[in-house]
Amino acid sequence: MSNEKLITAGYCGLACKACSVYIASQIGREALERRAAKAGMSAEEMYCKGCRSDKTSPYCTDCQIKRCIREKNLTWCSECEEYPCTKITEFKESLPHRAEIMDSLDFAKLHTVEEWDKLMEKEFTCENCGTYNSVYAESCSRCGNIPVNAFASRHWELIKDSEERKNL
Predict the structure, then answer these.
(1) Are 11 and 118 in contact (CB under 8 A)?
(2) CA-CA distances (angstroms) from residue 29 to 11, 23, 34, 47, 83?
(3) Beta carbons of 22 and 48 less than 8 angstroms apart
(4) Distances from the Cα of 34 to the Cαs of 28, 29, 41, 46, 140, in angstroms?
(5) Euclidean distance between CA atoms 156 and 68, whole angstroms
């Protein structure tokens, strides 16, 4: 199992590679500073290496889902006897980019991390150039393609007016 693939696989079923903070952290200092400034933070505070790494963004540092799964020594929420619990269902409902995390978790439970990562790549990369994009982006950061990825195409009505999109 690839360490990078697991590090960027959220316990909750989200793909870090499609997160605007993770993307900015990978692009470089200037992109991260722009993203951090919109949130009123420094680049150092905002920097993220992925959910399972030693350095996550402030949005994920105190994640109750991560804490719960680590305490239970599981890989995914869907491996838990209590799944789906209130924590994950409320988390799912709170932001548009979480609309399909239950499907993601159900897939992860039955497949390898590599297979899950391939599915996330299919869902969150531009079909034109293969670049990972945040679902909140208006167009692909590399080629300008619209929609930015398959997920955004399916959920654009939920995404287009969200507060999260305004913060990009």
Answers:
(1) no
(2) 27, 11, 9, 9, 38
(3) yes
(4) 10, 9, 10, 10, 17
(5) 31
* CA count, 13 A, side-chain hemisphere, 68: 19
Task: Give me the phi and psi of 125, to 5 degrees please.
Answer: -105, 155
pLDDT tens per residue across span 120-165: 999 999 999 999 999 999 999 999 999 999 999 999 999 988 887 7
Q: Give me the phi and psi of 49, to 5 degrees please.
A: -105, 0
Using the structure block, give the residue that is written with the tokens 């696989």: 9
For residue 136, give every residue at least 6 positions away whose Cβ sits within 8 Å of its Cβ, in sequence order, or none.
20, 97, 152, 159, 162, 164, 165, 168
Contacts 24+ apart (CB under 8 A), 53-58: 53/7, 57/19, 57/21, 57/22, 57/25
**pTM value surpassing 0.85:** yes
In three-state secondary structure terms, 93 is: helix
140 close to 148: Cβ distance less than 8 angstroms: yes
d(CA 17, CA 150): 14
Q: What is the pLDDT of residues 35-72, one digit of tens each?
A: 999 999 999 999 999 999 999 999 999 999 999 999 99
